[in-house]
Input
Amino acid sequence: MARKGPGPTKYPTLAAYLTRWLAEVIEPNREPTTYVAYEPLVRLYIIPSLGMKRLDKLTVRDVQIWLNTLPTLCTCCDHKKDHRHPENKRRCCAVGKYYKGYPSRSTIASIRRVLRSAFGNAVREELLSKNVAALTTLPAAGKTKKKRQRVVWGVDEARRFVEHLRAIDDPLYAAYVLILVLGLRRGEVLGLVWDCVDLGGEQLWISRQLNRGRGQLLHR
Output
């Protein structure tokens, strides 16, 4: 047997496994928006850094060390976003400057959640004996990350906005009222159909939502 050379291993690289996992487990069995959320995290973060490692050779320490680097990873430089912009709009690594657009803590948590789900499936398929991602610790957010400044309307500003829409007979007036008064999400408002509305009884049923995923509108 030794003369025939090494036999093929049953363990794929992490990149090959994640690609199959997305195509055979996530896409046909989960909501379309789940695939849309998972795929870019796998493609942009996990595969470039860990993809060439063999699935069974990844340790808790490997994954933890990599997770610890994410709070200081400039996504613009790493993904070369700036290189895709016209020259007059480049402002980061393409012109020798560094914007330091670090991943948010929620993004890092999502990356870890995707890995944990993928490794959990590998355990069920008996490719792994344990879920190494589940044993890692979520790193703290980068200290130098710029916080996004959010401008929040007060009651008076929201009232003026709604009154303006009503004055100009804006066709989306009712949608904005539902968002501001009842706190509905955009997808929930866009997903409303007449069967969900009882104008006489002044009732509304939120049963579906409209989202965009992979170039399609998903009414679900």
